[in-house]
Amino acid sequence: RMGGLELLDAIRARPEHAALPVVIVTSRDDDEALQRGADAGADAWVVKSQFEQQALLETVGRLTEPG
Q1: What SS3 class is residue 44?
Q2: Region of residue 28 (phi > 0: left; psi between -120 and 50: alpha; otherwise: beta)
Q3: What DSSP string describes 27-39?
């Protein structure tokens, strides 16, 4: 069993997955949690209480468009 940040660490540790876009979906919106996610390599952060489907779709689109 692992938490989301542990999963992100595991993803980033594998060279074949290192560039995989990762969006963290969480209930936490404090600066410390945001910084921990950024330090772990998250590409975006979605707070459940502020969830907007269109914003998530735009974020995923931005992260997956060819580059």
Answers
A1: strand
A2: beta
A3: S--SHHHHHHHHH
d(Cα 36, Cα 3) in Å, to the nearest integer?
13
Closest among 28, 31, 48 to 39, alpha carbons compared: 31
Q: Give the integer Cα–Cα distance in Å for 58 and 18.
A: 22
The helix/strand/coil state of 21 is: coil
What the block records as the tokens of 3 is 């938490």
Residues 8-20 have pLDDT tens digits of 999 999 999 988 9
Provide the whole-model pTM.
0.78
* Selection from 26, 55, 53 nearest residue 40 by Cα: 26
